[in-house]
Specification:
By secondary structure, the chain is an all-alpha fold. The chain contains 10 helices and no strands. The protein is elongated. About 3% of the residues have low confidence.
Length: 318
């Protein structure tokens, strides 16, 4: 069971801060090691960030020992509800500099928000002072992470736009894309199984509609309950859940609507064309917003979609 942040004691908050700073420092060390040969300047910046995280950890350790003694509770990010699940991008070789930079931005935004929330949960004056200082330093780290890309020179307006873009990506695009992919792919099998089993457009439409709405409700609640957004800054869980649910339903409805046409063969032909367009759109969105190479994204999405489609076809034709 994950612990809620509001239920953590001051001792647990400090222990969590220590483990988080240590983890972030090790990740920055991995980034520096992976980029040192091709991007030495960026690697140096990551190494400096690693050293600063070590200093943060040591300051937190000193505060913990002064207040609570030597024993530090074993509590990590993954034990507390509200943190983002990190993909282990630091293990990838070769590592893309933009991937590392974006990961660092998210990490620092999350760390800054963590300290801001921790301050509100702390009553000891010296601890609050330390957490305030760390929050300010993490805010500077966020700016540093945003300037890791070579020759990046943004104006204040561009920085604001970039901040909005990142929030839009976290709050809308990522959950919406997950829903669109699930709705577009998962509903193919029941829709086309019903279509080829009955050869009736009306029956296929009802099955597709039920599958789309059901999948939308399921995915919407799953996203809303996965992260309350308190530490990640991803916004209201209900907004993210609504985005996921609506896009899941839309992904399934798109290739269901053609079966409103009474002619079964015409409806099936149009539905297959719509599926092809949907898969192409998903591949583009993954390429545009998730930094996935277009051919790789297209291959993954199209192969997955075709497998589900043929599963429905074989079941419906049997």
């Amino acid at each position: 069971m994950l612990k809620k942040f509001k239920d953590l004691t001051e001792k647990e908050i400090l222990a969590l801060a220590i483990s988080s700073e240590e983890e972030d420092g090790r990740i920055y060390g991995e980034f520096a090691d992976a980029l040192r040969e091709s991007y030495p300047a960026t690697a140096t910046m990551f190494e400096e960030m690693r050293e600063e995280e070590v200093v943060h950890r040591d300051r937190l350790l000193a505060m913990f020992r002064r207040r609570f003694g030597e024993h530090i509770p074993l509590i990590r990010r993954e034990n507390v509800k509200g943190f983002l699940t990190r993909r282990p991008t630091w293990l990838v070789r070769p590592l893309g500099v933009n991937v590392a930079r974006k990961q660092a931005e998210v990490m620092e935004l999350e760390a800054q928000r963590f300290y801001q929330r921790a301050i509100a949960r702390t009553t000891d004056a010296s601890t609050r002072e330390l957490l305030n200082k760390l929050a300010d330093e993490e805010r500077k780290h966020t700016q540093t992470a945003g300037n890791l890309e070579k020759n990046l020179n943004l104006t204040d307006r561009q920085q604001e736009d970039e901040s909005h873009r990142k929030l839009f990506l976290l709050q809308v695009v990522q959950p919406g894309l997950a829903g669109l992919m699930d709705g577009s792919v998962s509903t193919l099998a029941p829709l086309f199984a019903a279509a080829f089993a009955t050869h009736k457009s009306s029956d296929a439409f009802l099955v597709g509609l039920a599958a789309s709405v059901g999948a939308g409700i399921s995915m919407g609640f799953a996203e809303a309950l996965s992260d309350d957004g308190s530490l990640t800054g991803r916004g209201s869980p209900w907004i993210r859940g609504a985005a996921t649910g609506l896009m899941t339903t839309a992904g399934g409805i798109g290739h269901t609507l053609p079966f409103l046409i009474s002619s079964f063969h015409l409806a099936t032909t149009i539905a297959i064309f719509v599926v092809m367009v949907e898969l192409a759109v998903i591949a583009y969105i993954r390429h545009r917003y998730m930094d996935t190479p277009f051919l790789q994204a297209a291959f993954q999405v199209i192969v997955g979609g075709l497998l589900v489609f043929f599963t429905g076809y074989l079941i419906g034709s049997s």
